Amino acid sequence: MMKNQLIAFLFCVLSFSCATNPFTGEKTMAFMPNSQLLPMAFAQYDQFLSDNKVLKGTSDAEMITRVGQRISVAAERWLDANNYQGYLKDYKWEYNLVDDKTVNAWCMPGGKIVFYTGILPIAAGETGVAAIMGHEVAHALANHGQQRMSAGMIQQAGAIGVAAATNSQSSTEQRIWMQAYGVGSSVAGMLPFSRAHETEADEIGLYLMAIAGYNPEEAHKLWQRMNTNSDGKAPPEFLSTHPSNASRIANLKSLSNKAKEEARKFGVTSFRSY
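RE: above sequence
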């Protein structure tokens, strides 16, 4: 009975909670609308900034803002040209650099971007920053944060279903079932879903950096440097939320000319490589 109710609930939620990925035209899960998601993201972003050392007025901080503005303009140009006018109306773009040696950068839903100083040596210049920025902005534009949250809600609901189905068993048996469910859901569902997001963001990010006037051929070089920085150490692709560096580099190489062709539609014929 509980299993049937859970299936019925998930069917209803999946049927009526969708958004559209503007780059693929596909329907995506959106259990939490932007009217709820974005205020939460903005509040978390402000809290992060208050808890970290934000650099202002330095050449690097100004570069992050400059590149971010160019990427956001490129995104709006692409969306407007592809009949998604107003898609960014609720975005409140913000670009910040924090003093942290971690090799990382991210973009929250709604255009809230953070770069860590630790990633700048690997970016090795403005075009490298543009490659990273395009990728992170792509996650936000394609609603990846929203989809991940929705997928997490499904995973949590499934865990509740497992608990209900095993409530007559011993605590040891329940723990074994829950552990099996956790691994199974990650390998079969959550992690591959995330890898798909990363691959999609790589392609969209290439288009954005090219439309912004940055050479997309520099993107695969960025990941070669990432590979060098990691000394080749990475989890097996099967259990990683990111594609392996080798497959990512090959994919970015193959898409560079396509990104330039996309940029030419917007009158961009020369590309920065510094």
